[in-house]
User: Which sequence fits this backbone?
């Protein structure tokens, strides 16, 4: 008889998960006999780097694992089958939680469709240990796609890092498994596991950990720094400027990174990435990505950095965990970004001149192309954004609404003055755009300009229902009368329901909304009037201003 391909894939993934635990320093595993847990337990038994012990009583086995972990001061794995077996781990899990002892608890589970269907040994196992566990995760029920396998390995890495980061404690990984649970013939796992390493202490330039990181960085020729969503930081900007100028490090500055004005920063990363993907040009793909900050706006940028030539991704963060945005995460470095890059700037390391030249030349071409596009072009929403950016006051604050506004500025970041940029990119929603900008302006004496779409303004016009607003708030509405971003999405644009379901045309204007909230109101629908309005926008005193642009 031959193996079922689905079962073979399960065993391959379980083998990868066992190897990940070994790479994180796990040397011992306690296994409790059971059928549903066979793929998990056998994978640990077949890993030559992990010593396994078989104990039948789950309650006692869990306390035994706790004793081993306490003595060795290192994490220990626990494995059991589905049903009440998992509940018997609970007393020791609670003890480990309050005693700060690292345990990695793997529980097998029935597939979700069979829970509460009068099937054997099936109970609700997700979050079964409640608050008496440091963290919990549920793995996919199948591994038919590349993303499924990446997701499972990423979760196990995150759970182990969580268990082994002070305060130490137990974590729970629940694994639903479908039958058949056994193989006729053993399979070999040739694929390398995804191992995400986290340094155990905060990095500084004098630490052994930092020296180790520098040695590893020196193994890479093409290094790319990616700045995600981040608050303004003068020290960080100065440090990154030194890296880009002296070390030829390539820096892609996301629109909300507040690093657009770092010397030699790549502002047109979205355009360059899109062109590189289209041409299948690997000259722009780095060996090592070093990132910091939050989410990126550019989808093309993310797609480029998910390409196979990328060998490693390090994320700099003071948090315990880091997102694996590019599916290449290999190291989490617990450090303040400014401090880390300052230490890195002092090291005699220089990236490939050819790699840096590719990016810098492409940046110059993209800049010139963008300028040419606006010279003599017809009035449009994107051209209106261009004029707005040209009129922003020096050192003022720009707030970008989600959907089209943030993408317009990402594709054409043609600023002629330094500004700070903010956007709700944590979740990328349009529902609090006005209120967030209003709150920011209330506690600041600087100028604040919000660019948002008509739907975002409609969602949140109650942000103007506020007696504390000042005249430093300028709201610019790009009113294209609906969700026009869907016309730029190839899938949505081809649907016959594009107008009725996606765009949802609305005929409204916002003069009365602005006036009823005590704001000054201006309107334009052509380039000449827009330029006249922008000339007056920041001179208007005494109350907030709403400028509506119909495109």
Assistant:
């Amino acid at each position: 008889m031959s193996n079922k391909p689905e079962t073979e894939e399960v065993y391959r993934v379980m083998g990868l998960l066992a190897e990940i635990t070994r790479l994180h320093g796990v040397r011992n595993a306690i296994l409790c006999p059971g059928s549903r847990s066979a793929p998990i337990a056998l994978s640990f038994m077949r890993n030559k780097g992990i010593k396994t012990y078989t104990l039948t009583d789950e309650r006692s086995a869990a306390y035994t694992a706790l004793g081993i972990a306490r003595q060795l001061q290192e994490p220990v794995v626990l494995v059991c089958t589905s049903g009440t077996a998992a509940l018997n781990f609970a007393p020791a899990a609670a003890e480990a939680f309050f005693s700060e002892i690292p345990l990695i608890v793997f529980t097998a589970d029935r597939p979700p469709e069979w829970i509460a269907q009068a099937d054997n040994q099936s109970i609700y196992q997700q979050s079964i240990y409640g608050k008496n566990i440091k963290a919990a995760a549920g793995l996919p029920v199948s591994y038919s796609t590349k993303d499924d396998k990446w997701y499972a390995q990423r979760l196990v890495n995150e759970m182990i890092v969580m268990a082994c980061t002070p305060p130490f404690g137990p974590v729970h990984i629940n694994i639903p498994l479908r039958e058949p649970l056994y193989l006729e013939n053993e399979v070999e796992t040739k694929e390398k596991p995804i191992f995400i390493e986290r340094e155990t202490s905060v990095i500084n330039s004098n630490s052994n950990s930092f020296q180790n990181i520098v040695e590893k960085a020196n193994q890479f020729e093409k290094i790319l720094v990616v700045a995600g969503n981040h608050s303004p930081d003068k020290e960080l900007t100065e440090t990154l400027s030194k890296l880009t100028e002296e070390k030829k490090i390539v820096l892609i500055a996301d629109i909300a990174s507040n690093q657009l004005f770092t010397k030699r920063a790549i502002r047109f990363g979205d355009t360059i990435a899109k062109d590189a993907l289209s041409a299948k040009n690997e000259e722009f793909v780095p060996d090592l990505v070093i990132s910091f900050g939050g989410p990126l706006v550019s989808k093309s940028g993310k797609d480029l950095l998910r390409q196979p030539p990328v060998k490693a991704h390090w994320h700099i963060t003071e948090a315990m965990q880091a997102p694996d945005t590019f599916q290449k995460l290999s190291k989490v470095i617990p450090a303040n970004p400014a401090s880390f890059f300052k230490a890195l700037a002092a090291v005699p390391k220089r990236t490939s001149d050819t790699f840096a030249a590719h990016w810098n030349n492409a940046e110059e071409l993209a800049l010139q192309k963008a300028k040419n596009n606006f010279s003599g072009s017809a009035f449009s929403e994107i051209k209106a954004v261009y004029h707005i950016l040209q009129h922003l006051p020096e050192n003022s604050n720009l707030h970008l609404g989600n959907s089209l506004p943030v993408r317009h500025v990402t594709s054409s970041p043609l600023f002629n003055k330094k500004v700070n940029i903010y956007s709700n990119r944590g979740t990328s929603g349009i529902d609090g755009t006005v209120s967030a900008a209003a709150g920011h302006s209330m506690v600041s004496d600087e100028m604040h300009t919000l660019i948002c779409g008509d739907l975002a303004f409609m969602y949140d016009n109650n942000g103007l229902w506020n007696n504390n607003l000042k005249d430093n708030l300028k709201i610019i509405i790009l009113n294209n009368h609906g969700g026009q971003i869907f016309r730029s999405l190839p899938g949505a644009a081809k649907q016959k329901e594009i107008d009725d379901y996606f765009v949802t045309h609305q005929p409204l204007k916002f003069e009365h909304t602005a006036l009823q909230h005590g704001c000054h109101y201006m309107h334009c629908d052509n380039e000449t009037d827009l330029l006249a309005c922008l000339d007056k926008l920041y001179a208007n005193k005494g109350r907030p201003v709403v400028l509506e642009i119909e495109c």
